[in-house]
Design goal:
By secondary structure, the protein is of the alpha/beta class. The chain is 37% helix and 18% strand. The strands form four sheets. A four-stranded mixed sheet has the order 5-8-7-9, with helices on both faces. Strands 1-2 form a two-stranded antiparallel sheet. The protein has a two-stranded parallel ribbon with strand order 3-4. The termini are far apart.
Length: 193
C-alpha cells in the first residue's frame, strides 16, 4: 500500500488503513506500507488492535525493494478508496489469465491498483510510484485493464473532496441509496423515542 504524505480520512479511517484492512481480509499477506512519511501512530495502533501488523518500507527505498519472490504482488496507490469487490476482481482476473498476467484497475488512464506477477516484480523493484510501475509493464504490453463497470474505485486528490466521495461510496454500497443499512435500522426506533 502506497501511503501519501497527507492522509485523507473517510469514515474514521485513513485511506491507507482501509487499503491495509481490505488487503488483509483478502488474505494478501504480508501487507507492506511505503511512503515518504511513516504510518501515523494512531493508524498503526488501530490496525494492531485488529491483529494486523504492518511491515513498513523505508522511504529511502523503492516500494518493492524488500518484497519477497513468492508470488504476485498487489500494489494499491495512495489515497485510493475502493470496494472489496475491486480487489477480489483484480486478483481473480490475474489468476484466470495465468500466473504471468499483470492487471491494473485504472480510472481515466490512471492506475489505482495493480497486480504484478512474480515474473514482473524484478523489473519493478526500482520504480518509486504506481504510475512508473504501470508504465514499465505497459511498455512491454503486459498489462490488462480490469473493467470497473459497477465497481467503486477512486483516487481522492484533496481532503476537502473526501465527504462527497464518502457519500458516493455509501450510495454505491447501498445500491444507490444515500443512507447506510445501520442508519436506516437505528431510525426505526430512534425517531419514535
Amino acid at each position: 500500500v502506497l501511503n501519501d504524505e497527507s492522509p485523507i480520512t473517510v469514515g474514521g479511517l485513513t485511506l491507507t488503513e482501509r487499503a491495509v484492512l481490505l488487503a488483509h481480509r483478502a488474505a494478501l499477506c504480508p501487507v507492506r506500507v511505503w511512503g515518504v512519511r511513516a504510518l501515523d501512530p494512531d493508524s498503526d495502533a488501530r490496525l494492531r488492535s485488529r491483529g494486523i501488523s504492518v511491515l513498513r518500507q523505508s522511504p529511502d527505498s523503492a516500494p518493492l525493494a524488500g518484497a519477497e519472490d513468492e508470488g504476485g504482488i498487489v500494489i494499491v496507490g495512495p489515497n485510493v478508496l475502493f470496494g472489496p469487490a475491486v480487489l477480489a476482481d483484480l486478483v481473480s482476473l490475474a489468476g484466470r489469465d495465468g500466473p504471468s498476467a499483470a492487471v491494473a484497475a485504472c480510472v481515466a488512464g490512471t492506475p489505482l491498483l495493480l497486480y504484478a506477477p512474480l515474473e514482473a516484480t524484478a523489473d519493478l523493484r526500482t520504480c518509486r510510484s504506481l504510475e512508473m510501475m504501470f508504465a514499465r509493464l505497459a511498455t512491454k504490453g503486459a498489462v490488462r485493464e480490469l473493467p470497473l463497470a459497477g465497481a467503486f474505485c477512486r483516487r481522492i486528490g484533496r481532503a476537502d473532496l473526501a465527504p462527497s466521495v464518502e457519500r458516493d461510496y455509501v450510495r454505491h454500497l447501498n445500491g444507490g441509496q444515500s443512507e447506510s443499512f445501520f442508519t436506516k435500522r437505528i431510525r426505526q426506533f430512534s425517531v419514535p423515542l
